[in-house]
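My hope is that you will study the protein record below before we discuss the fold together.
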Amino acid sequence: MEGPIKNSYWKLENEPDTGTYHPILAGLEDAGRIINGIWQLEVQPLEGFPSPLTLIPSYPDLPMEDVYPRVVQTDIRGIYLRDWGKGRVVYFPWDIDRVFWEVMNVDHGRLLRNAVEWALNEEKPVTVTGPGFLDVMIWRKKASLTVHLVNLSNPMMMKGPFRELLPLGPLVVKIQLPQGKAARKVQLLMRDSIPEANEYQGWISLTVPEILDHEIIAVDL
């Protein structure tokens, strides 16, 4: 293991033949580079892998006239992607999760999210469109679906104690129905109300006017 690493970056690589970027870099295409983590494992690939991230090694961060990369191109990879049978594998040989937890770097968060979505390789069963930061959980039973929306937006987000509840809304929620099933009834349990829900080609969509701390969408099938 190498580290602690100081002032190092990952270079975003496009496909040389097409100039396009791998889907795992979606939303980062104009960044050029993102910051590295603190600890990194040396990995030797035994076969070919896509190389969407390559290492820009550490260089001085002071004095200012000395702040420039000594090596601008390497073949050291920051991510390994592979299709395996019906599944997919994403491997980071560096501590992206720990660094994101500590400093909440937006680029790291986007890369982690893209990695999960690429590995799943299917449409998300629930999407929420609107402001703020939510924890989203879906439960399926034989004759129902339940979607929990927990409002995490607060001044101490991701750090434990809540100082203040900041209401969110309106939020547009889209839920995938089980194949061959239709929605018989849709309710917002915390608000104790029945929203207007539109059903189309195996999906329902509805608007949650506001969430203070928690809302539960109950769908009877």
Q: What stands out?
A: The chain has two domains: 9-120, 126-220. The chain has a mean pLDDT of 93.
